[in-house]
Structures are given as structure tokens and as C-alpha cells.
Request: fold
Amino acid sequence: MISNKIHNLIFDLGCVIVDLDRQKCIEALERIGAGEIAHYVDECKQIDMFLDLELGKIDVAEFCREIRKRAPGCKASDEEISRAWGELLTGIPVERLQMIERLHRKYNIYLLSNSNPVHWDKSVDNFFPKAGHEPEYYFDKMFISYKMGMVKPDPRIFETLIRETGIIPEETLFIDDSTANCRAAEEFGINTLHVTHGSEWLEEFSGGSESYEGSGSSKSSEGSKSSEGSEFSEKIVATIGFFDGVHRGHRYLIDQVKAVAREHGAESMVITFDRHPREVLHSDYQPQMLSTLSEKTEMIKATGVDHCEVLPFDEAMASLSAYDFMKMVLRDRLGVKYLVIGYDNRFGHNRSEGFDDYVRFGRELGIEVIRAKAFVLNGVNVSSSVVRSFLSAGEVEMAAMCLGYRYSISGKVVSGVQEGRKMGFPTANIDIKGIKKMLPANGVYAVVALLSDGSQYQAMMNIGMRPTFHGEKTTLEVNLFDFSGDLYGKQLSVSFVKRIREERKFESEKALKRQLEKDREECLKIEKWKD
Reply:
């Protein structure tokens, strides 16, 4: 039974959410000739290159070089070594993520993990998607050691978590498989649950699920269950939509929701979905997203709305009529008393009903339905579709005007063919497979490059097929101005400032180099680089 004073849950990853198999990892290392380092895995030592990788002091390439150095018989490639080291993680039982999804309705949930890029990427790319959602869906914020430069049980990692989340330690439960980590958390007044396997905490919450659900525990940023059956005790003024990109039109709508809430002494709520409805309704639909789920929820919360409720959109949700959705979800579950409808918004099965229908349903259900005003910019009603149309034409400045910020993409830097380096324009090549968002039209762009350490650089970027070199696939190449260093394996974000020109084929490498020099000069003429 979990105390009803608990409002926040902090989960570890390995052994708590993800299952580990040390023997399987040892055998994989032995197969590639790296048996000499097997004792690191067997004892789970946080020392040497393993600790440096978890701290982010070295990248995966440096880690692999150190493995080969310590195991002279190992001739494996970086990819083979990473795959063998990744064998330590075997998967996430879906019932654990389903439980976290249920708990997320009641609690603020955070992830605090000593992890490295190999294991984290495997979890993100292979394990979480099998349950149908990105990690951001399950956790309000994630604290990963190699991204923070510190590991548990270092007190600073708990200080950082408390500072950035604003949690009250006495209202927080930390779940970890390390007694040392638990003791460190307890020094800050955080309650702890020490487990040796993920099934233990699952049993702890499942064993008294009925009494736990009604125990009075509340997710502090999401409200608490009322006596009428709603999960929220206050009157709620809500709006609903997908909110892709959280553009100026969305924020104008949210401002109207907040104004109605102030007028009625209620709390404001934005209701959105974890995936685009068309992904469920049409299996072959490939959405051109303007924001990831985590970006979307962060931007919504930044508006100052009281609650951001992310609903899982599945076939069951898709089958609900507008009336049933308003009754079962808005009224019964979320306690919505006022519903502010965007000027062009429709919901419910087949989207067959409209505003007048919602008003009629609302009268029957005790929900006042209010039509919102549209946000008009230069005679255009700003929408996600309008933003996409600008991006597809390469008009990133117009897209930024509609969004209220510069459009950006982010991904991992991978090795390329280094043709740019030969011409004096070394590029960081972003792995296109990891991009979850829409790409602007092919061409050369002035961009701001943001590194994982927070530093920013003026840069130019080419999106395209590299026709001068007879390329056959789209690549993302970023040339950072006045930068020297190794970015391989690291995250790189770019925000689009201006399109310089279309991509085109040149008669020779020299002609291309001359044009790149002109492109750089054009980029440097831009006065306002930062937002």
C-alpha cells in the first residue's frame, strides 16, 4: 500500500523498468573476443570507461576503442561492440509500462537513470515502441546520467532533480535497485522503495490496486479524484485538440481557455493526444509532425495552463462518438464544466458532428460549450496545416512567424562520406532515421546549431540528395561556423533561420565549393541569428 501523501514517483531504469541479463552480455562480449572485460559486466562496476560513458565524458567511439585496447584479441567494429554491450538489456515487460501509464493519471512520474548512450538508445528505439509510446509519454521529465554528467548516488543528481521538478521530497517515492542510491535519496528526505527486480514494484502497486486507486493520492499537476468520480476536484475549463507545433493560434486558444477559467473561478486544462488520430485510423499514414510529444507537452505547460492531459489515442478512443467522448471522458473522467472549442475543431467518431451538436450534447451533460475566436495573421487563420505548407515550400521565416518561434529538428550525429571536409566545409551529418518531425523543403539554410552542452553556433545546413555527388538518399548536413571538435554520436539540434537557396547539381566540386563560400557569406550577413 502506497501512502496517500505520495504525489511523485521516481523510477530507475535498469532492473526496475528494463530487465537485464548479465550472462547474455558476457557471452556476447566473449563471442567478439572481448572476454577480458566480462568481469565489468558481472560485477556491474561503475569504473573506468564504463563510468566515463555513463558520465558522458567519452562517446561510443572512444568507448569502443578502449574496449579493443583492453581486449587485444577483439577486432570487432564499433557497431559490433555496441551490440554486444547492448545485450545486457533484454526488454521491458509491457505490463510495467501499462502500470506506469495508469499511475501517470495520479502522480507526477520521473525517470532517474545511470545510463549510457548504447543502452538508452536501445531502450528508446526498441523497447518503448513495443508498448506503443515514446518514453516522453510515460515520464514528465527524464534525468539520464550521460546527458547530465553525473551519476547516482552523487548527491548533486538529486539536487538537480529536486530543483528542476520542484518536487517536495517528503511527497516523493524513489524506486531503485541500489541500496546506495536509496540511501542517497533518503538524505534529501525522499521516500524509497528498494527492489531487486521490476516485478517487485509492480506487485507493490498491483497488490492493492483498488484501494490504491481510491486512496486519495493525487498527481499534483493533474488534480485529484473527486467524490463525483472525476479525476479532478476543481471545476475544469478545457479545450481539446492535437496541438501539433503549439503555434500562435493554439496559444491564442489556450489564452481564451485561461480567461474563461479566471472568470468562473475554475482551473484550465488542455486535452491532447499521444499520437495523431490518423495514425490509428489509417495504418499507412505517415504524419508530418511539427513537434514531438515531449516538445508539445513542454510548450503547452509553458503557456501557464493548470493541467495538460495527454490521452492515449487507440481504436477504442477512435470508436467513441462525440457524445460518448464528452460524457465518458470530458465529464465523467476529467470533470469538464466548460469546453472551449477551436474555430475549426471537430472530434468524435468520423468527425461527423459540429459545433451546434456539441452545444446540444453539452446542455444534456452539464457542459457549457463555448466557440473560440480564430487567430488571424495577415488575413490567414493560423493552423498546423498552414505551417506545414510553408515548410514544404522552404519558407521557414513564414513558418516561424506562424509558430511564434523558429522551427527546429534534432538528431544524432553519424559519420558521413566527408566530401564537405575535403572542400573545407566539414559537416555534422544528422541521422535522418531518428528524425520524428517534418523536414523543410530541400535546399541550403542558415541555421542555429545547438549542441548537447548548451552551446550555440551559427551554421548552414543542406537538406537534400547531394546531386553533385550522385546521391540517392536524403541527407542532413550541417556546417558549423568557427567550430572545432568531434560531434559523432552526440545530439545536435538545428533551428531554421532562413532559406538561402534551392539544392542544385554543380558541374564540378570546385564549382560547388565556390557556391558554398557564397552561401556562407550570405549566412553571415544575417543580423538576427538568435530568437
About this structure: The mean pLDDT is 86. The two ends are 49 Å apart (CA to CA). Residues 236-377 form a domain with the Rossmann fold fold (CATH 3.40.50.620). The longest helix spans residues 248-264.
